Automatic annotation (TrEMBL):
Biological source species: Candidatus Fusicatenibacter intestinigallinarum
Gene Ontology MF terms in the entry: acyltransferase activity, transferring groups other than amino-acyl groups
Annotated PROSITE patterns: GNAT
Bilayer-spanning residue ranges: none
Name recorded for this polypeptide: GNAT family N-acetyltransferase
Length: 183
């Protein structure tokens, strides 16, 4: 899915939101590894990220060509800050729902960027007739949970020990949903 490029003013800075392009592949591979190293709240360990440059280029192209998937990159004053995405469902009974995801470099959290990017995802979802946004979040990621609640997401379930870390500890995950129809 493609969007129109958009620039938003944020605290005297410019936040550019745009689709990923094949030329962004190396930057995105670096981003994936860096963000996986910076936080325990993401799905994969850094060493599990083994996509090749060609794999990433193909992934970007498939996202842009999709009718139900979207990847948006954010750039604050020209510097890549992170990504957000919609992942749709191919099955007719599930097409009203999408999974949302977002990850920012840690130095860019707490600045309002996540809020703007999530609002953009919600707007695009509405424009495409999506009725429900869904996500999973590590239960003790308090800042992310607060952001999602502020944006209208509600906790609809919790899975204990959803993730097991290399050190043997576990993390519970909350399942959250948002009705984006305005009802």
């Amino acid at each position: 899915m493609r969007i129109s490029q958009e620039t938003v003013t944020l605290g005297g800075h410019e936040l550019l939101l745009r689709n990923a392009e094949a030329d962004d592949a190396q930057m995105l591979l670096t981003y994936l590894k860096t963000t996986a190293e910076e936080t325990r709240f993401l799905l994969k360990e850094p060493e599990e990220l083994v996509m090749t440059l060609e794999d990433e280029k193909n992934f970007i192209e498939s996202q842009n060509a999709s009718d139900s998937n979207l990847m948006i990159l954010g750039f604050l004053d020209g510097e890549h800050v992170g990504n957000c995405s919609l992942m749709g469902n191919p099955w007719m009974r599930y097409r009203h729902r999408v999974t949302v995801a977002i990850a920012l470099y840690q130095k860019f959290t707490g600045l309002g960027i996540g809020t703007l990017m999530m609002k953009k995802l919600t707007d695009v979802a509405r424009e495409h007739g999506i009725e429900q946004l869904e996500l999973e979040v590590v239960a003790d990621n308090e800042r992310a949970v607060a952001l999602y609640k502020k944006l209208g997401f509600q906790v609809c379930g919790q899975m204990p020990k959803n993730m097991k870390y290399k050190d043997g500890t576990y993390a519970d995950v909350l399942f959250m949903v948002c009705d984006c129809t305005g009802n």
